[in-house]
Automatic annotation (TrEMBL):
Top-level taxonomic group: Bacteria
Membrane listed as a keyword: no
EC category name: oxidoreductase
E.C. number: 1.18.1.2
UniProt key word Translocase: no
Listed PROSITE patterns: FAD_FR
Record's protein name: ferredoxin--NADP(+) reductase
Annotated InterPro entries: Cbr1-like_FAD-bd_dom, FAD-bd_FR_type, Flavoprot_Pyr_Nucl_cyt_Rdtase, FNR_bac, FNR_nucleotide-bd, FNR_type-1, OxRdtase_FAD/NAD-bd, Riboflavin_synthase-like_b-brl
Matching PANTHER family: FLAVODOXIN_FERREDOXIN--NADP REDUCTASE (PTHR47878:SF1), OXIDOREDUCTASE FAD/NAD(P)-BINDING DOMAIN PROTEIN (PTHR47878)
Length: 272
């Protein structure tokens, strides 16, 4: 028998896109994976931002989607967290990538899930569902975040236990991280919740955890959100974002942006 070699498409950079190399891939389960790619020396971003990435489409043109960067701004590589959609135009191809493959990377990251879009405060709550965790992985490894806030909280709601990507690192409060291993153990809090499977921790949706006060267990301060001291970031399902945006506005919080910082921010360009 003759070995068959499948030729990978060669990608060409342009003014808006660089071509990077896939360095590693981790499949968390059958519909969730993360991967790391090379980082060009000229690529600069703020922790929490997103960027366009993609592959060559069937028409030969770049097929791109917005992805939040999961690695912190100081990392020498760039990491992403993605769902697998079997008939998705991009993710049906993206889930098949292997180390050594090429991938497009946009040259201009942007986004509102950045500390610049928030007013100063004491506690930072990052509310996420599914792969909406990605930008908060970036922010929770950024030493500046621990200078800006006394308490840093990631809330991650998923359907199944295996969807808790990076659970070990988050449970360990980034104790092995080179830049935040000293601050994070005393300031970082991880609140995972699993809604569709038995789990030895929280099993309610985020709104129920807020109502019961369970979301605030172990976090210094009041067992409720306070617009004077608390700052909120949200990323994930549109249902969750719409629900909580209305909730926070009702509680006296104002939405922030890069141009006008406020008390909560959401990512409107989130995919997945």
């Amino acid at each position: 028998m003759t070995d068959v070699t499948i030729e990978k498409p060669v990608l060409e950079p342009n003014g808006a896109l660089s071509v990077e190399t896939v360095l590693s891939v981790k499949h968390w389960n059958e519909h969730l994976f993360s991967f790391r790619i090379s980082r060009p020396a000229s690529f600069r971003f703020r922790s929490g931002e997103f960027v366009m990435i993609g592959l060559k489409g069937d028409n030969g043109k770049p097929l791109l989607r917005a992805y939040s960067v999961a690695s912190p701004s100081w990392d020498e590589e760039i990491e992403f967290l993605s769902i697998k959609v079997q008939d998705g135009p991009l993710t049906s191809k993206l889930q098949l990538i292997q180390p050594g493959d090429q991938i497009y990377l946009g040259r201009k990251p942007t986004g509102t899930l950045v500390t610049d879009a928030l007013l100063p405060g004491k506690r930072l709550f990052m509310l996420s569902t599914g792969t909406g965790l990605a930008p908060f992985l970036s922010l929770s490894r950024d030493p500046d975040v621990y200078e800006f806030y006394e308490q840093v909280v990631i809330v991650h709601s998923v359907r199944r236990v295996s969807d808790l990507a990076f659970r070990e690192e988050l449970d360990g409060k980034w104790s092995q991280d080179p830049l935040v291993s000293e601050q994070a153990p005393g300031q970082f809090h991880y609140v995972p919740t699993v809604t569709r499977e038995p789990y030895d921790g929280h099993t309610q949706r985020i709104d129920k955890l807020v109502e019961s006060g369970a979301l605030f267990e172990g976090v210094p301060g009041a067992a409720k959100f306070d617009p004077e001291t608390d700052r909120i970031m949200m990323c994930g399902s549109m249902e969750m974002i719409k629900q909580f945006a209305a909730y926070f506005e009702g509680e006296g919080f104002t939405e922030g942006s890069n141009a006008a910082p406020g008390q909560f921010v959401i990512e409107r360009a989130f995919v997945g």
